[in-house]
Amino acid sequence: MIDAIQDSSRAAVSAMRSAVEDVGGGVGMAEQAGSAIVQIKDGAERVVNVVANNSSALVEQGVASEGIAVQVEQVAQMTEQNSEAASVVDTVAEELKELAIVMKVPGSRFQIG
Q1: How far apart are CA 85 and CA 97, in angstroms?
Q2: What mean pLDDT, rounded, does the chain reach?
Q3: Cα–Cα distances in Å, from 91 out to 54, 59, 87, 104?
Q4: What pLDDT sits at residue 45?
């Protein structure tokens, strides 16, 4: 009977040691999981920062693109105005040419001297 109690006690001690090892392994795994969660959190924060920076850059590019579009429109308007002015100058030059021809004929009747 003592042998049976001793065997039972040894089995209980062995089972307790095994349980302690299992708990120790579980604690180690929990620590690893905690470390992995911290790394995931840090990675997620870096991703959020990159997305925020990209978003900011896109907003700046959008503003710059709008400014460029306005300037291109202004250049187009100035080009149109220059074309209209050139047409007016051409018309006035043609009129001056015709006037010069008309004035040349009566002017040839006068003699100096």
Answers
A1: 18
A2: 87
A3: 55, 48, 6, 20
A4: 96
